[in-house]
Amino acid sequence: MNILILGSGGREHALAWKIAASPLTTKLYCAPGNAGIAQEAACVALDLADHAAVIAFAKNYGIDLVVVGPEAPLCAGIVDDLEKASIKAFGPGKWAARLEGSKGFTKDLCKANNIPTAAYQRFKGAAAAKDYVRAQGAPIVVKADGLAAGKGVVVAETVKEAEDAIDMMFGGGLGMPAWEIVIEECMVGEEASFFALCDGETAIALASAQDHKRVFDGDKGPNTGGMGAYSPAPIMTAEMNKRVMDEIIHPTVRALKAMGAPYKGVLFAGLMITAKGPQLIEYNVRFGDPETQVLMMRLMSDLVPALVAARDGQLKNFDLRWYDDAALTVVMAAKGYPGAYQKGTPIKGLEAAAQVPDVQVFHAGTTAEGGKILATGGRVLNVCARGKTVRAAQARAYEAVDKIRWPGGFCRRDIGWRAIEREK
Ligand code: AMP
Ligand code: GLY
After folding, report:
1. Residue 153 in contact with ligand 1 by CB distance below 6 A
2. Residue 145: what pLDDT?
3. For residue 151, pLDDT beyond 80
4. Residue 306: is its pLDDT beyond 70?
5. Residue 150: pLDDT band by 50, 70, 90 thresholds?
6. Which fold would CATH assign to domain 125-179?
7. How confident is the model at residue 234 (pLDDT cuts 50, 70, 90)?
8. Residue range 195-216, pLDDT digits in tens
9. CATH topology assigned to domain 190-312
10. pLDDT digits (tens, 9 = 90+) for 376-405
11. pLDDT mean over 346-371
């Protein structure tokens, strides 16, 4: 098969690494890709917002399957457009992608189907929203509807903070004025990410993971896209995984099918494991980044037949095998991230790092220039390792990190600490 991956991050490098290893893959392309992906796939400069250009490329190069990484093209309906042009694509259509694109849509779907999630109300204006906040009290969570690149959520500790967040969101503080916000109850528990593969009707569990969102050791400092992750999440026991499938994933897939918007692709549930059990924080309609990097390290089976089965509605009797080992990834970012950072700093020692056993280095923001690898993004590398325990995987990952010579970069030194405490 000729396969085209859309995207350019560590997630797409991990997918490219796994797809390139499949005996079913004849030729692999990635648009736009990065310097690491270029070791697995032919990178092509396509604008993902230009669906006609992606379709034209797929036709010209005989693409048998397009695998979409990021949410923006999914929410913009790239899968619908590709399928209309008779090109098979992995991922949800625009209608089903509202699970990530609209928080209000997802909350209403949960309510109508008894899916456990925080109590909430939707608001189109600040006055009513503030009345509600005053009536409910703090802590309380304020969320802007629509894609906000992870910045649209404020967990307010006081009523004043919540009121300020409401003014900020309706006042255009997120780039443009929010047209609707959701205000919800603040849930207490431990967070975990859960991934399922769906074919419109059937869903099968993939694996769980946990990530570290804060930039500094000890989970301190501002939020980022994720500074590291590990899989599985120790809190996700077999029983908890089953509850998530039965109480959250299956009812969601059934509801979307009944609505005429069957969900195909990866369903990524952000969960709060509370005293009452698992509750949905939010859905993403794609693979997680950096969670996919650790998932791919643990997946023993070939990924390609799974993607095809999801696209074709054939997951019913499908089964995937996983390594029991843990996997962990350390994100290396440019100094200054998530604030302003320098671009174009050189990275050395990548070959030596990749030689540490059970280690893979996935690139996020890199480019190759005159035989050198240069950093071009905020999050730049994902140093991933597998081990019998999270502690063993962590030791391997940092052994590899220490072989990378990049004065312009930094990483956290404590990725996995919570899981390692539990292992003691
Ligand atoms: P989201 O963008 O919806 O994933 O929210 C970002 C982060 O805000 C989550 O990872 C949680 O840490 C936190 N969060 C969101 N909603 C809630 C909630 N209802 N209760 C507690 N924490 C929340
Ligand atoms: N790591 C969180 C995400 O991919 O949204």
Report:
1. yes
2. 85
3. no
4. yes
5. low
6. Dna Ligase; domain 1 (3.30.1490)
7. very high
8. 999 999 999 999 999 999 999 9
9. D-amino Acid Aminotransferase; Chain A, domain 1 (3.30.470)
10. 999 999 999 999 999 999 999 999 999 999
11. 96
Q: Are 66 and 398 in contact (CB under 8 A)?
A: no
Rg for the chain, CA atoms, rounded: 21
Prediction pTM value: 0.95
Q: Which residues contact 51 (CB under 8 A, 6 or more apart)?
A: 73, 76, 77, 78, 81, 82
Contact 66, 31 (CB under 8 A): no
* Mean per-residue pLDDT, 111-140: 96
CATH number 3.20.10.10 is the correct assignment for the domain at 326-423 = no
Mean pLDDT, rounded, of the chain: 96
> Does 139 sit behind a cis peptide bond, omega within 30 degrees of 0 on the bond before it?
yes
3-class SS at 159?
helix
71 Cβ inside 6 Å of ligand 2 = no
From 106, 117, 153, the mutation candidate for ligand 1 (largest count of ligand atoms within 8 A of CB) is 153
Instruction: Please give the pLDDT value at position 270.
Output: 97
What is the assigned CATH class of domain 2-91? Answer: alpha beta
* Ligand 2 center to 382 CA (angstroms): 14
Domain boundaries, the chain: 2-91, 125-179, 190-312, 326-423
CA 72 to CA 2: how far, in whole Å? 23
**DSSP E strand boundaries for 65-166:** 65-68, 89-90, 120-123, 140-144, 153-156
Q: What are phi and psi of 203, to 5 degrees?
A: -125, 135
Cα 355 from chain centroid (whole Å): 27
Q: Which of 39, 65, 38 is nearest to 306 (CA)?
A: 65
* pLDDT at 149 exceeding the cut of 80: no
Rounded CA-CA distance 171/14 in Å is: 39
**Which of 11, 12, 193 most suits a substitution to test ligand 2, by most atoms within 8 Å of the C-beta?**
193
Q: Are strands 2-7 and 65-68 parallel, antiparallel or unpaired?
A: parallel
In the reported structure, the alpha carbon of residue 401 is separated from the centroid of ligand 2 by a whole-number distance in angstroms of 22
Contacts of 28 (CB under 8 A, 6+ apart): 2, 3, 4, 5, 16, 19, 20, 40, 41, 42
Q: What is the pLDDT at residue 375?
A: 98
Q: Distance between CA 340 and CA 46 in Å, rounded?
A: 27
